[in-house]
Task: structure prediction
Amino acid sequence: MSEKNDGANRDATKRSARERLLVERERQKTRDKRRRTLVVAAAVVGVLGLAAVVGLIAANTGKDGADKAGPVVAPSGATGQDALAIRTGRAEAKSTLTVWEDFRCPACKAFEDNYRAVVHELEAKGLLKVDYHLVTLIDGNMGGSGSLKAANAAACAQDAGKFAPYHDVLFVKQPEEIDDAYGKNEKLLELAGTVDGLDTPAFRACVEGGTHNSWVGKSQDAFRAGKFRGTPTVLLDGKDIFSDQADPLTPQKLKERVEAAAKGSGGGSAKGTPTASAPASAPVSGSATPSAKASSTKGSSAGSSAGSSAGSSSAGSSSAASGSGSSAGARGTAGD
Result:
């Protein structure tokens, strides 16, 4: 009887040992599987981390890309501090309009479309000169390179004495803000073909070589350092014409104020030869109507009532709405 019990106990012990071994093997398999999963996960995280670092480096390089593209080459006749402005009109004009613009900015187009005729009229009379500063705000907010390349092309047009008409063409033909059409040199050269005498080998070489890219980058740096609210920023003799939202400077008021300043200085019919880039009249035929719909990428935009100029929109987007003979567009805010 004892032998039978001993045998049974031994069998039970063997079964128990086999069961424990099986359980241990399953546990080991589970541990191995978990370890492989962790190793793979760590590898994935490492790759993503490296990608993030590379992306950050690329992004920072992109921000400074214009500055590091080569030496700063100012366009012919550039004026102002650090030669960052392109001037149109007669140097002796009593009043000065300072304009910070981005060729991809819809609100800048709204300003140009509504004020272009009176600005050219006052320039032709010798009463007003305009200092244009070209920036790349929309490239930074929306991505792409259209702001930079269009500004470079406009500077190349200044070298050829054709800045004013080409500047106007770029705004009249401005693509949708999200369409980086001006990031393609072919489009910029195509539009140059509509300006008499501009499409030359020298102009093409300037555009395709990005001759003034670093100069444009320096202008953008100056815009950021100036802490301007957005584009367009327009100053008449140093004062923001849109600062008073309740009573902004409409085209008619701009004309009246400039004429009054000229009379007060004994001017009114300033004489002299216009600069090479100052047209006697608006050089672009037809009219471009600012979009009536507001657009926003990172926030909301605020419009103003008809007959006034608007406030600012969120970073990454500009919007424009036309009023009766005045600009009523939202402005692209000054982001990084």
In short: The longest strand covers residues 95-101. Residues 26 and 130 are 82 Å apart (CA to CA). Confidence is low (pLDDT under 50) at residues 37-68, 266-330. The first helix runs from residue 2 to 64.
